[in-house]
Amino acid sequence: MTVDYKHDNLVRAAWLYYVLGKNQSEIATILGVSRPSVQRMIASANDKGLVSVDIKHPVSVCLEYELLISKKYDLSLCRIVPYAQDSKSDHKSLVSYGASQVISRYIKQEKSLNIGIGSGLTLKRSINYLEKLNQPQHKCIALISQMNFEGLCNYYDDVPLLFADKIKAGYYQLPAPFYSKNAENHKMWCNTDLYQELAVKASNADVIFIGIGSIGDSSPIVSNGFITNNESEALQKKGAVGEILGRFFDCHGKVIKHAINERVTSYDLRKSKKAKIIGIASGEDKQAAILASLEGKWINGLVTDEQTARWLLTQ
Question: Which pTM was predicted?
Fold first, then answer.
């Protein structure tokens, strides 16, 4: 099955209207489109024979999963992307495109938003799908650095910078290396006035978009050289199943006691005051980390794939 996102939005509009009983203005807000567009979507769904006693489309299953997962894990937002059955489809790219639709709803707002941005390949792909905009009223706050303690930057994966450039928002860079050399060095970096000012901005973010990382020799945090294979193995022996912003946690979402977690300089999401924190991740290799991030209340929003959603509902 090849996913047609225009068709999917048409189905979503019909499902929200006929199943949930949302009015057209509410649906327009949810989908990030105009009210006349919603009218056309609902009419088109009827014309195409999608609406009868139920909605005849695989996306309707995803919409049911969204409701069930939101209820089970107390989420304010959930977007489940249909799983493409054909072998030619890149499933993570499909999730990235679905996430870009969610992100677009925020960045197209006229009011100024403080937007926290993390890292991750799926999040990076989501940003690549966004249309170029001129939204200087927004502030893009980097929650993690792509610089090592020697000052070398992995600018190809500086996701906050890519995001800020895409929408021409103000860009606030985290003024510290990803991991400090030691505990004393960590205290020095995190106590600077500039770092503290950025931490305040991050704490007052309106919405945060982050990736959810797995752990293992092939995970980007290892392959990009931020932690060693030995450190990865040590973390796994202590029960680590994944990481968010370079902070490793166990299957319950509790931070692992390890020197790595004492040296990470990224923003601690647990200090967020009001933000919608939306995790963007998919795939079997990420399932344990996604579940842990939900159980540990690291996120209150999720964009993932249909198979992962089905797995989460069985846990």
Answer: 0.83
